[in-house]
Request: fold
Amino acid sequence: IGEDVKPFTPEKAKEIVMSLQQPAVFCNMVGDWPALHWNAKYLSAVLDGKAIQFRLGLKAVDLVPQFETRCSYVKATLEEFLAWSCGQPSCLSGPFSCYEYSKYWAYADYKYIARIFEDKPDIFQDIRWSDFGFPGRSGKESTLWIGSEGANTPCHLDSYGCNLVLQVQGRKRWHLFPPGDTSFLYPTRIPYEESSVFSKVNVANPDLKRFPEFRNTTACVVTLHPGQVLLVPRHWWHYVESIDPVTVSINSWIELDADHEARVEEAITRMLVCAIKSAENPSDGDLWLNPTEVEATSHEINLQYLNKAVSAYFRCQKASVSEQACSSS
Reply:
């Protein structure tokens, strides 16, 4: 195949993304994307001194996952982050001064590109998910992740959609587990976050005394290199860690019809978590909610969530029933 010919047409790529039940790595699909130049240094220049929030965790490996509720948080510029990750002595002052690089990792994760670059809308076009059969999908519908070596996301599954992840700088190691391994991963909803089900197991250092069933899992381990795109199918568990000094990746969640049913489940879960939490000692509240969840929502709002989710689910059901009727007639 010539250098500029992609292995899949957008139609074929979309067919694979929507139907494949196994993780897959796409190669040679994004060679002409301007986003491939989005290394941390370039983004630092574009952001021009804008501070973003970093999550900090310990590099020392524990038997329990480092949930986001147990991390520290600092606001810093990418310039400050890069100086710290290079071990520059200038970091004796500044936001990272209390966190020794040899002991900590930092992660600016889950940053909506639309929000970070709201004053630079032209940059959205650097990301072209249309090559995967999703016309009109750009950086606006994508999320940015910038981490230092050791930065990681605890093992979890996403309730909605499937996931396309572009690696831009450095390498990341993905430990992926199929939906059938769910019971072996000891799922929990605490810390609660809409759309994420966490595992109680620290996949990098499992406590087999507490979680003996974890032995029955079959991990698929993928090291993602710059220029590659990983497909994470619906409900596949994943633990992700940065294995280079600086990593940058961009992802987009692709909506699926099955999400309507998942939204009903998530609305019920939200209602239960908030109800139980309100009966708890208020001082423990912070350990319940993942930091991405701003606050416990009222019963009123939770009912609205549930109503909307149920209505959307039934609308989708009706639509597919009438479609079947049309095709059979």
